[in-house]
Amino acid sequence: MPSPSEISERIAYESERRARLSVPAAAGGVLFLLSAIIVHAVISGLPAVGLLQALEPTLHGTANPALSARAAEVTFLSHHALGSIAGSVLAAIAAVMLTVVLLFLLSATRFRRAETPRAAGPLVIAGGGGLVVFGVASQVNRAIRAHDFTTGHDFSEHAVEHALTTGTANLLIGYLGLLAPLLLALGLIMVLLSATRVGLITRWLRGLGIAMAIVILPLFAGIFYLQLVSAAWLVSMAFLFSGRLTGGDPPAWAAGEARPWPSQAETRAANQADQGEVLAGAGVDVGPAPARPDSGGSARKRRRKRGARSGEGLRPE
Question: How much is the pTM?
Answer without folding.
Answer: 0.78
